[in-house]
Structures are given as structure tokens and as C-alpha cells.
């Protein structure tokens, strides 16, 4: 019985760690294909997860999108679903919003993750009652202000809730502060240098259990280069530092992201990137735009022991 109890405790701690990691998962299928280089990327519907100040430099006034991330190709209900968008109010203000639902794997009794041990009769210990699927949820809202023609600021508030499937629930409130600047480049008409900076997940637990998130500071630059009327290239680089709460998965350390996006007539977009975060992984992706509809897909390639290995993400959005 002692062995069973210790295994249960270990499994529960692992699930809480997984929930904490959820806070740093960016559901954007576009920038996921660009090595998760986000902080200086040009605006899209998921800018609340990239840089909530970026929409103030976007010519579209409204964007909204939905994405699905598969963690198990055989089980559709295990994965991350997200909805996000923004609305510009005049030329100086914006409101962005987002919401995520992360369904984790059900408890297993056959040694698979998340493993939940059984007693000598093959039953789950009755003291824990019926088990349910662990899941994480978040709701985000951001306000953006264009302080000048070249600089915008944004503040994001985020509520997180986690249920571990054992009857325990955790919640937290955190904030992001972002800066975004867009500078025209004189060497080519339409060329832009974008600069972004962001401090993410500064906040506190709303329950007495230390449910906190990793504090991350990032800076980045991206260069947008048009080549005639039909071709353009966006290159983005992020550099950041992550401070993980005690007991959380991963360690403090430097993060680096590199992404490329080639656009053909603004209709087809090819993307690739590389990330050095908790894990190292390469990314590929494709985007299709027709009228006001944007469809994006990404695929992650990494070492087999990385949870991002062979993960795909697909999204569909509208812009006006």
C-alpha cells in the first residue's frame, strides 16, 4: 500500500507540473511553424499569445481564429483547443482575447502516462473516488495602446484553472506586459523592421498550493522584406530567459527561437523554424489565404523523448 501511495503522489505531482507547463504553450499554428518566434512577429489573430501590442500596426481591424493541436493521433479528444482574436478601436486602441482548453490523457492502469496504480485486485484505491480526465483552461484579455506612430504597449491579464482528475483544482492569475515597435526601412519600399519585448506570466496563485507559472522575459526582432508585388520574406529571431518555479518541469535558462515565412502573392505561405526552449525542435508549416479566410498548419520534429515530437497543429481564421 505504501508503494501505491508513493506512486500516486508522484503521478499527481507530475500532473501539476504538466499544468504549469500549459501556461507557456502558445496555440498559434502560424508561429508554431516558425520555431515559436513570436514576440516580434507581425500581427495575427493569436497576437495575444505572441505580442498583444502588434495588432496596432496591422491594417486589418478584426481577426479571429481557432486552432487544434494533436497530442495523440489516435485520440482526437487529447489535445489543445484554442480560440483567439483582436479588435482595433480606431488607430490607437485594441482589445485582444483568447481561451484555451487542454485535455490531458486519461489515467491508465497499464503503466502508460499518466499511470495510476491499482491494488492487488486490479482496482483503483477507493479513497480517491471516481477519476476524470485532467484538464487545463485559460481565459485571456489584453488592452493595447499605440503610444506613438512607432511604439505600442499592451497589458494582458490571464486566468488559469487546472483540475487534476482526482478532485483537486488549482487556479492562478498572471499578467504579461508587451512592447512592439515597427520601423520603416529606407533601402526598400515596404520593408519593415519590427522590434518586440515582453515579460510573461508575472502573477500569483489563487489557491493555497503554489500553482504558479514560469516567468519569462523575451526580446526579438523581425525583418519584413517584400520582393516586388508577388513575393515577401519575414525572418524573426527571439531571445529570452525563463525562470521556473521550484519543483516545476525544466530549469532556468536561455530560450532562443528562429523562424522564416515566405509568402507568394499573399496566398500561399511556407514556414520553417528552430527552437531551443525546454526542448530543442524543428518546425515546418504551410499557410493558405483565400479572400478573408486563413488556414494554417504546422508540424514539429524533435527527439523521441520530447513531447513535441510529431505533433501537428491546424488552425482556421477570419480577417476583416
In short, what is this structure?
The protein has 320 residues and is mainly β. The chain is 9% helix and 51% strand.
How would you characterize this protein structure?
- By secondary structure, the chain is mainly beta.
- The chain has one domain: Porin (Beta Barrel), CATH 2.40.160.
- It contains three helices and 14 strands.
- Residues 1-18 have low confidence and may be disordered.
Structure characteristics:
globular, disordered N terminus, mainly beta, 320 residues, Porin, single chain, 3 helices
Give the arrangement of secondary structure elements.
Blueprint (H helix, E strand, L loop, with lengths): L1 H21 L6 H4 L14 H4 L11 E9 L8 E11 L3 E11 L31 E12 L4 E13 L5 E16 L7 E14 L9 E13 L3 E13 L9 E12 L3 E9 L3 E11 L2 E10 L9 E8 L1
Antiparallel strand pairs: 1-2, 1-14, 2-3, 3-4, 4-5, 5-6, 6-7, 7-8, 8-9, 9-10, 10-11, 11-12, 12-13, 13-14
How far apart are the first and last residues' alpha carbons, in Å?
60 Å
CATH fold assignment = Porin
Rg over CA atoms, rounded to whole Å, is 21 Å
Structural class: mainly beta
CATH homologous superfamily title: monomeric porin ompg
Put simply, the count of helices is 3
β-strand amount: over 45%
CATH architecture term = Beta Barrel
Low-confidence stretches: 1-18
Instruction: Please write the CATH class name.
Output: Mainly Beta
Overall geometry: globular
User: How many domains comprise the coordinates?
Assistant: 1
Major sheet attributes: 14 strands, antiparallel, barrel
Q: Write the H/E string, N to C.
A: HHHEEEEEEEEEEEEEE
Number-wise, the strands total 14
User: What strand line-up does the widest sheet have?
Assistant: 1-2-3-4-5-6-7-8-9-10-11-12-13-14
Percent of residues in helices: under 10%
- What average pLDDT do the residues reach? 85
Amino acid at each position: 500500500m505504501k508503494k501505491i501511495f508513493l506512486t500516486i503522489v508522484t503521478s499527481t505531482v507530475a500532473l501539476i507540473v504538466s499544468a504549469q507547463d500549459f501556461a507557456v504553450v502558445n496555440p498559434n499554428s502560424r508561429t508554431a511553424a516558425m520555431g515559436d518566434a513570436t514576440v516580434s512577429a507581425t500581427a495575427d489573430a493569436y497576437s495575444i499569445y505572441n505580442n498583444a501590442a502588434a495588432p496596432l500596426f496591422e491594417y486589418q481591424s478584426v481577426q479571429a481564429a481557432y486552432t487544434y493541436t494533436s497530442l495523440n493521433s489516435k485520440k482526437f479528444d487529447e489535445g489543445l483547443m484554442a480560440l483567439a482574436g483582436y479588435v482595433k478601436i480606431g488607430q490607437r486602441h485594441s482589445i485582444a482575447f483568447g481561451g484555451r482548453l487542454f485535455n490531458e490523457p486519461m489515467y491508465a492502469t497499464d503503466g502508460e502516462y499518466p499511470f495510476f496504480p491499482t491494488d492487488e485486485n486490479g482496482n483503483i484505491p477507493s479513497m480517491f473516488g471516481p477519476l476524470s480526465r485532467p484538464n487545463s483552461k485559460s481565459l485571456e484579455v489584453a488592452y493595447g495602446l499605440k503610444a506613438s506612430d512607432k511604439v505600442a504597449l499592451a497589458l494582458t491579464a490571464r486566468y488559469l484553472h487546472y483540475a487534476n482528475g482526482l478532485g483537486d483544482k488549482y487556479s492562478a492569475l498572471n499578467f504579461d506586459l508587451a512592447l512592439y515597435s515597427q520601423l520603416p526601412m529606407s533601402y526598400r519600399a515596404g520593408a519593415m523592421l519590427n522590434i518586440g519585448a515582453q515579460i510573461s506570466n508575472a502573477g500569483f496563485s489563487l489557491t493555497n498550493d503554489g500553482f504558479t507559472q514560469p516567468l519569462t522575459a523575451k526580446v526579438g526582432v523581425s525583418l519584413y522584406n517584400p520582393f516586388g508585388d508577388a513575393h515577401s520574406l519575414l525572418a524573426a529571431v527571439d531571445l529570452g530567459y525563463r525562470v521556473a518555479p521550484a519543483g516545476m518541469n525544466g530549469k532556468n535558462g536561455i530560450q532562443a527561437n528562429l523562424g522564416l515565412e515566405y509568402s507568394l502573392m499573399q496566398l500561399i505561405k511556407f514556414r520553417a523554424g528552430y527552437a531551443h526552449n525546454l526542448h530543442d525542435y524543428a518546425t515546418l508549416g504551410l499557410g493558405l489565404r483565400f479572400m478573408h479566410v486563413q488556414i494554417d498548419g504546422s508540424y514539429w520534429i524533435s527527439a523521441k523523448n520530447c513531447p513535441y515530437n510529431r505533433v501537428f497543429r491546424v488552425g482556421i481564421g477570419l480577417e476583416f
